[in-house]
Amino acid sequence: MDAMTKMWVSFIGIGLMALSAVVITLARSRTKGVVRFVLSLVAFGMLIVGCFCGFISII
């Protein structure tokens, strides 16, 4: 993988982690019940994918 590809993968990872923080904040402060659970699950998935992209960009 060349340097430019690693750069874009790391940007995607950073973006996903930041977006997951925003989604979990909104889910916890403005929603209740099943919607809160679904948004939290989506945010957790985005966090995992973002971390995975970060690890790939390091390798």
TrEMBL record:
Pfam families cross-referenced by the UniProt entry: DUF2768
Superkingdom field: Bacteria
Keywords annotated in UniProt: Membrane, Transmembrane, Transmembrane helix
Spans traversing the lipid bilayer: 6-27, 34-58
Protein name in the entry: DUF2768 domain-containing protein
